[in-house]
């Protein structure tokens, strides 16, 4: 039988109030891709486990936001927490938000060295014939892949998206197969693509949900944010060689200046759609900036999709924050080897710990667990236990607790004292046995 660890239930109110949080945090998130899935390495958190619940929402959240779009999701970027939703799994056409997947597959091919952004792409008759918003491409035109990508993301060029699909996939049909395979890999369970740009195709359209589009948006910012955000935050696209200039289709950029992406969409069946994102600045000492993603599908007009997206993003910025709760080096708990005061070890964290949640009540409970069986020598930085935080939505955060000092040997005097205590205790027990 495995021995259970010693357990200390800490009073969260008393404990956290004693922790100094008057400090600035560095940017903490780095992204790696392993085994085909994106995993985050939180430099400030060790061993984070999230329990995702469908529509994880605060009771008051649904009451405070009223939107008209048919479906919507508000997601926090770093942790993927859903802060607000309306019909998140309702299947509906995404229109040109489809182009987020087209961008992803093209950039994936660039990163793999299969193609380059500087490549010159010859426009086919099929690409030039695409209807709707366009880059004014004509069959036989030769355009850089970079310009095609920018035109697709900024002015929503359907012809540009089709040309990209043909160049990356060999044919649009082959590219669509890749799109569906990637959607499945990313966990977009309710998404099916039939074309690379979102236009109706022979009476059918791409199908997705607000939930799936939030997943895709999060993935793209994770993996390509440094390349993508400068594009999607541009107010216009200018190509002097083609005498082309057109404004960004995302009017939310001007309505809410902190917004820096991502993609609009419209068809008669889809209605007006928008996947938007905004970085929320640090809200004072002890907090850090964070990013929000809002997806609205099926608005009645452009004004409504902008208004709904703005409401969601402002709601998230007003009610949530990323709070510093423990600074690197702060003592979370103390442990006395052999229960002796001189042999005190402080349990601390390797790096600053941040928690995302409501500005009030982000943490429900804090627990500290000591691992049993630790033996000398103890080295500074050695893990001796862990802290488990139960957050506002009942998800768990696990933080590694380490020794704040070395304890390599015990002075002979304390060893003698320990022996004497043990011997005295044994003798007392023995006497009690015989006397009893």
Automatic annotation (TrEMBL):
Pathway assigned in UniProt: Cell wall biogenesis; peptidoglycan biosynthesis
A GO BP entry: regulation of cell shape
SMART domains: PBP5_C (SM00936)
Active site, UniProt feature: 96, 99, 156
Uppermost EC category: hydrolase
GO MF term list: serine-type D-Ala-D-Ala carboxypeptidase activity
Positions bound to substrate: 263
Catalytic activity: Preferential cleavage: (Ac)2-L-Lys-D-Ala-|-D-Ala. Also transpeptidation of peptidyl-alanyl moieties that are N-acyl substituents of D-alanine
Family to which this protein belongs: Belongs to the peptidase S11 family.
UniProt-recorded name of the protein: serine-type D-Ala-D-Ala carboxypeptidase
Species of origin: Geosporobacter subterraneus DSM 17957
